[in-house]
Amino acid sequence: MARIITISREFGSGGRTIGRIVAQELGYNFYDRELVDAVAAESGMTPKFIEEKGEYANSTRSFLFNLAITGGTAGSSLSMYDRVFIAQSKLIKQFAQEGSCVIVGRCADYILRERTDTLHVFVHADIKSRVERIVNVYGETDKAPEKRLAEKDEKRRVYYKNYTGTDWGNMRNYQLTVDSGFLGIEKCAQLIIDCARE
Amino acid sequence: MARIITISREFGSGGRTIGRIVAQELGYNFYDRELVDAVAAESGMTPKFIEEKGEYANSTRSFLFNLAITGGTAGSSLSMYDRVFIAQSKLIKQFAQEGSCVIVGRCADYILRERTDTLHVFVHADIKSRVERIVNVYGETDKAPEKRLAEKDEKRRVYYKNYTGTDWGNMRNYQLTVDSGFLGIEKCAQLIIDCARE
User: Fold this and answer.
1) Helix (H/G/I), strand (E/B), else coil: B193
2) Which DSSP string corresponds to B157-174?
3) Does ipTM surpass 0.90 in this model?
4) Is A143 exposed, middle or buried (0-12, 13-18, 19+ CB in 10 A)?
5) Does A179 sit within 8 Å of B175, measured CB to CB?
6) What CA–CA distance (Å, rounded) separates A80 from A76?
7) Is A113 on the interface with B (CB under 8 A)?
8) What is the mean pLDDT of the segment spanning A40-62?
9) Of residues A122, A187, A190, nearest to B171 (C-beta)
10) What's the whole-model pTM score?
11) A-to-B residue pairs, Cβ atoms closer than 8 angstroms
12) Is the Cβ of A122 closer than 8 Å to some Cβ of chain B?
């Protein structure tokens, strides 16, 4: 039985919805927005700032590089991004310690990589399904949703690379990856629950 | 219901065994060794040659490059590798047309990419599980099984790249990827059957 489930996901793939279903079915805590609010409370920054900076890169200079040039001290030379990452990492580890949970995004797979009671999942989908989802479900009104998807994915990819040194969406880092465009949201949730119960 | 299931796999991950279980459970044809024999019969080459050349690269010059420099004619300038690939592709398409089946390896996911009645799966596992498997199940006696695994994977990767122009093991090309080291052979087979029945 996996006590902790991390769900990484492409933007618009429904990974958050899938995570919520999995958490409800298993009776696990669910951390997504909840994590944003907790990081905000911990760091004194606003939830809006955390949401924007906590998963999307805006710089190509990596956290690992910053740590290296500061000699590993999390000192005053660290950026606001780095501070958010540090606060997030601390809380993710704490939540994982406290009880069974599903955590969506935020490099949780990497942050919890040394635990053995985890199931790491990645949810992806074809562009067409994701565009449909962000327009119909998220209510996005952008005139070029494909471009927005590509930008969001790229920012997540760079963020992940910056903070983990490894590639976002490399299936070898996940015990299960699912295509929600093909399988559907409900089926993906079922598969994850099925694996978690193993 | 997916009528055709392709299973790509890392060497030693048990993908072939998983494919056999799936085929048996669903009552589908199963093509692995069977495909080697059919290609041999079709091409006049020996099964041993097909097995060696039909999935492992031995050259960095790609099929697509060869086709380009010969102006797209599959003429006498094509290598034995290329001839095996062409014979394999033809048979894979034919088998897929003839009836429900599970096909293991041999770029079948790419060759059948335009069909819509398919489920494409990739099976991977950590090095430790794969070493255990090739030593205990396949009976490999090599003194450096890790090195052998790495070489086999690399040859499959290069072969795939040469013949498809895309990356081997990119999860976005698969509706499902599973870690057989973590989930176990039986569970992986069940998950695939579950998705195929969807």
Assistant:
1) helix
2) HHHHHHHHSS-TT-GGG-
3) no
4) exposed
5) yes
6) 10
7) no
8) 71
9) A122
10) 0.88
11) 59
12) yes
